[in-house]
UniProtKB/TrEMBL annotation:
It catalyses: dTMP + ATP = dTDP + ADP. PROSITE patterns: THYMIDYLATE_KINASE. This is Thymidylate kinase. It is an enzyme of class 2 (transferase). Phosphorylation of dTMP to form dTDP in both de novo and salvage pathways of dTTP synthesis. InterPro entries: P-loop_NTPase, Thymidylate_kin-like_dom, Thymidylate_kin_CS, Thymidylate_kinase.
Length: 212
């Protein structure tokens, strides 16, 4: 049986994650792989319902600990019902965000304990981590402006984190870079400030290094 492959695409809001997820999936399908694309929070009916609650409304709608637990609840459903079954049958899973975002947003951003988040992750989903996490790195002000524009153009009520100030998003960027520095074997940082084709080429090259 073909071994399953788990990829996550991370980065600040507005860094272009969803586009890269699609490009990675298309590249893997051209190689004959079954590919499952998904996102967090979301990925299941229950996860999408939690997404609507977590990404809309005022920033103070949720206590940080409640926010963490809801994100984790969505991930339990996601892993048990989507990711783990796909990996078990040898598929490639490409997820727009995973636990790296929890460490960045609820850990560094909200100030919750990173050891606690890691322990919760281990207990909740068996300590599942991606084989490779691509971090799309972009200036926080640029990413925030892009994300706010996208939400406005699409009339999406998912701007709860975009309502936070630039300093918050700068902390998130720094947190992702710190994750990559601590575990370079499982992370690749990609400059997301270039043209879309340039960013895509860097992402596909990172994938090919992993699978080649």
């Amino acid at each position: 049986m073909v071994q399953g492959l788990f990829l996550a695409v991370e980065g600040i809001d507005g860094s272009g994650k969803s586009g890269i997820v699609g490009q990675l999936a298309a590249h893997l399908r051209r190689q004959g792989r079954e590919v499952v694309t998904t996102r967090e929070p979301g990925g299941t009916h229950e996860g999408e319902a939690l997404r609507a609650l977590l990404l809309s409304g005022a920033d103070d709608a949720w206590d940080p600990m409640a926010e963490l637990l809801l994100m984790t609840a969505a991930r339990v459903q996601h892993v048990r019902r989507v990711i783990a079954p796909a990996l078990a049958r040898g598929a490639a899973v490409v997820s727009d965000r995973f636990v790296g975002s929890t460490l960045a947003y609820q850990g560094t951003g909200r100030g919750l304990s990173e050891p606690f988040i890691r322990q919760l992750h281990a207990q909740a989903v068996g300590d599942l981590w991606p084989d490779l996490t691509l971090i799309l790195d972009l200036d926080a002000a640029t990413g925030l402006a892009r994300s706010r524009r996208r939400l406005g153009d699409a009339a999406l009520d998912e701007g709860r984190f975009e309502s936070l100030d630039l300093a918050f998003h700068e902390r998130i960027r720094a947190a992702f870079l710190a994750q990559a520095a601590r575990d370079p074997a499982r992370h690749t940082v990609i400059d997301a400030s270039g043209r879309p084709d340039q960013v895509c080429a860097l992402a596909l090259a990172a994938l090919d290094r992993l699978t080649g």
